[in-house]
Amino acid sequence: MKGTPLYEKALAFGNPKCDSLYNAKTHNEFTHYPEWEKAIGKRRVVLLNTHYSYMLEGNVPHIGVKRLIESIANNENLFLIWRPHPQAFLMKMSVEMQKMLNFVQDHNRMILDKTPSIVPAYMYSDAVVSLFPSSIVMDALFCDLPVFILGREVEDKLRGKHCNNSFYNVVSHENFDKVLPNDGLYSAGMQLYAEHNIFAPLDEFLKEIESCEDSKRSERTLFREQEFPNWDGTTGENILKYIKDKFI
């Protein structure tokens, strides 16, 4: 919209959905699941978001997803809530992804979330890992949750640009400074790349979450103030007030 005649007419009130998130976080207004609370105990919770398009048959799952699941499975202090895009369950998933879903569903420190709303998952979580940026990530940032992004954009679009991107400054992510190898997914070069540029940053993020550290807190606070107008739960109220004042 920026650069078009409509831009001058746009009003920045924010998303009314954020009112619901605010009330859930501030006033405890969300569906509680006692069975989740019992399973979680005092563990630190990571919410995993995966879009259906990366889970379908014919697509190779991002290696960071398996690494995350394995890391949490091997750490008694961590708990996983995996909420795949609901549409994924209506389509044929890749064999690898289905195996991971089955593993999570059977694990006593993991939940495969198929509930009607994602809001409880946000409220029970201490951090979010997302396969590529999405609206889920913006919700997580609104809720002031640390975020790790798995995946990277096309090389020529990303290199050199993320340093000046306010979004990538407030989330943790893969190391974008190294060129992605083009010699095959299972090559020695790709394995070495993954160890240093995907797994190492992800492991560091999980270590922070486990230790209740938050290295991005100050950057995230500034981002929230800039990106979320009426972040105090009054978005819908202010939209309604503007319409009444303008047209009634």
N- to C-terminal distance = 28 Å
How do the helices and strands follow one another from N- to C-terminus?
A: HHEHEHEHEHEHHEHHH
Uncertain runs with pLDDT below 50, 5 residues or more?
A: none
Sheet with most strands: strand arrangement: 3-2-1-4-5-6
Q: Report the sheet with the most strands, covering strand number, pairing sense and barrel closure.
A: 6 strands, parallel
User: How many domain units?
Assistant: 1
- In CATH, the architecture is 3-Layer(aba) Sandwich
The helicity comes to 40-55%
The overall strand count is 6
Outline the structure in words:
The chain is an alpha/beta fold. The chain has a single domain, classed as Glycogen Phosphorylase B (Rossmann fold), CATH 3.40.50. The chain is 45% helix and 11% strand. A six-stranded parallel β-sheet has the order 3-2-1-4-5-6, sandwiched between helices. Helix 6 links the parallel strand 4 and strand 5. The mean pLDDT is 87.
Furnish the topology, listing elements before pairings.
Layout: H1 17-27, H2 34-40, E1 44-50, H3 63-73, E2 78-84, H4 95-106, E3 110-112, H5 119-124, E4 127-131, H6 135-142, E5 147-150, H7 155-158, H8 166-170, E6 172-173, H9 188-210, H10 217-227, H11 235-247
Parallel strand pairs: 1-2, 1-4, 2-3, 4-5, 5-6
